[in-house]
Amino acid sequence: MSLDRHDPEGAIAEAAKAYSNWGRWGEDDVLGTLNFLDEAKRREGAALVRRGVSFSLSQRFDMNGPQKGWRRRTNPVHTMLDTGTDAALGNQGFPHGIGGADDVIAMPLQCSTQWDGLGHIFDHGKAWNGRDAEKVVTSAGDLVTGIEHMAPYVAGRGVLLDVARAIGDDDGEPELPDGFAITAEHLTATAEAHGVSVGRGDIVLVRTGRLARARRDGWGDYAGGDAPGLSFTTAGWLHRTEIAAIATDTWGFEVRPNEFDHAFQPLHQIVIPNMGLLIGEMWDLDALAADCADDGVYEFWLTAAPLPITGAVGSPVNPVAVK
C-alpha cells in the first residue's frame, strides 16, 4: 500500500476498511486472530521440539526495568510481606518451628514483556469487532474482551524473523537503527533467508536488536522513545498471512517516529480494533536468536499465555520457546 505521510486519517481509514476482520468469527467473538491457532496448529508446533532446549523470552520484572514514567507507567515494585528474619525471630506465630516468606508486587500490566489485549486500542470510538468502546472498557475493566479469554489458547508454532541479523549491518552488531521501518518485503526476505515459512496460526517474533542496544548502552528512551519497528505498510502482510499473533523486542511494535506527520501509533489503530491481532511488546529475543543462528532452525514450540486477569486490557507474560 502507498503511504502519504501528510494524510494519516486517510491511510488509516483505507487500511481499516481493507483489513477488517469484523464479523469474521461471529458477532460475539473475543479472540480475534487467535481463532487461526487451532488444535492442528498446536500439534504442528509441539512436533517441532527436537533438542528440548528452552528459552524464556521475558525480561525480568524488577525496579531496574525500562520504565521511567511515560504514560504513568512505572517499573514493578516488589515488597516482602514475610521474611526469613520474621521466621528466625519467631514473629510469625507458627507451630513446631515452621516459617515462611510471602511477597507482593505492584506494577502496570504493560510495564515489561507483555501482550496487548483487544481492549487496549480503539478506532474512532470502536473496539474490536465494531463494538462501542464505551460499552466494552469501563472503570470496571474490559467487560467483553478481557485478556482472560485468551489464556488457554496462546501456544503453538513460533517463528522468529531476526530482521536485524538478516538485513542489518554485517560488520557490526545485528541491530537496526531507531526509525528503521520494517516493510513486508523485509519480512519476506528475512523468512526466505532463514528458510522458514509464515502462515495461518503462527506466532511470529520479530527481532530488531533494540533491546540488545538498550542493555548495552542503557535504557534511555527504550520505553516510549524512538525505535525500529514495523511499517504501517505491513498491515496488508499481517492480514494476508493470517498469523495468530506477533511480538517484537521494542516497546511499541511499530516504527518510531511513526511514518506520518502528527500521528501516534497508527498501525496499532488498524491491527488491534479492526484486525483483532494479538500484539506482544518488549520481548527478549536475543538468546533465542543466537541459538537459531547457530543451528539454522527458526521455528519452535512456543507457549505464551497471558495471566487471566479478569477485565485486563494487557498482561505480563513469560513466553517460553522450546526447540
TrEMBL record:
Keyword Disulfide bond found: no
Top-rank lineage group of the source organism: Bacteria
Keywords associated with the record: Hydrolase
Top-level enzyme category: hydrolase
Molecular function via GO: hydrolase activity
Ranges in coiled-coil conformation: none
Record-linked SUPFAM superfamilies: Putative cyclase (SSF102198)
UniProt protein name: Cyclase family protein
Organism: Streptomyces xiangluensis
